[in-house]
């Protein structure tokens, strides 16, 4: 299989779709699913709730994570082939680096319980797989 050039426009377009999935999912997670637990955790540590600027930063980071995920998909696509298999592979790599590793660090530091971490990473696994497949659907070379 010949190595073609990556379509940067489609990486960004697919990445923005993946980022939209991530941001919608994170909004549901952090308001409905674990919102009360996070509020209690922050209060117990005398930390303020997230303000608008922090939330805006997380939204931007969600879109960047989507773009990086689809860039990775495009990069591994020549080896793994186009489609959901490569999208899931890219998602699993991003899942470990952006979800499991940093969240586990918060547990190791004593910031959050392992139960809360498991809820967050389980949600994140589904989130990033769906986001990656959606963004990969848009990507074309």
Question: What characteristics describe this protein?
Answer:
82% helix, elongated, 5 helices, 141 residues, mainly alpha
Summarize the structure.
By secondary structure, this protein is mainly α. The chain has helices spanning 8-33, 35-44, 52-80, 84-108, 114-138.
How would you describe this protein?
The chain has 141 residues and is mainly α. It has one domain (8-138). Helix content is 82%, strand content 0%.
Shape: elongated
Find the count of extended strands (DSSP E, 2+ residues): 0
Averaged pLDDT, please?
A: 94
Number of domains: 1
Unreliable stretches (pLDDT < 50, length at least 5) are none
Helices, by number, come to 5
- Helical residue percent? over 70%
Topology:
Blueprint (H helix, E strand, L loop, with lengths): L7 H26 L1 H10 L7 H29 L3 H25 L5 H25 L3
Helix pairs in contact: 1-3, 1-5, 3-4, 3-5, 4-5
